[in-house]
Design a protein that fits this description.
Layout (H helix, E strand, L loop, with lengths): L6 H18 L25 H8 L5 H8 L5 H4 L1 H28 L1 H12 L26
Helix pairs in contact: 1-2, 2-5, 5-6
Length: about 150
Amino acid sequence: MSIKIKDEDIIKVIEDKNNSFNNNTNNNKEKDTTTNKKKKKGRPYKQIDLDKVYSYASVCCTQEEICNILNFDRNLFNTREDLKGIYKKGISNAKLSLRRKQFILADTNPTMAIWLGKQLLGQRDKHEVEQTNIQRVEIVNDLDSKD
């Protein structure tokens, strides 16, 4: 059974994830750095659309792919807690969606049910082999040694 995915389906999934993310967060936007009294030295704060990071992570994009699409350095995932948290939420959402689809498939596809049993329940195929007629082999070194 092969599954064909259309571009429209991917766009719809991303839009649905964006809408659900926007409804679940209370305008969790980046902090405004202009209100700080001290002037910070160094590079200005990079503005990154966290909704897009979430939507890309929700379809299992890697950090590297998201950085390339949104044009920022991958090290920001390590230094910015808001970015790291949004990415983890998106990946968790993707895993949840995938697991839900797998369980739906397991109802009609016995191979998927077996695979899920192995992955989640620790089940495995046992192949026990009994050996009969065990014979002992003696190794003899009858080669002449060259000295």
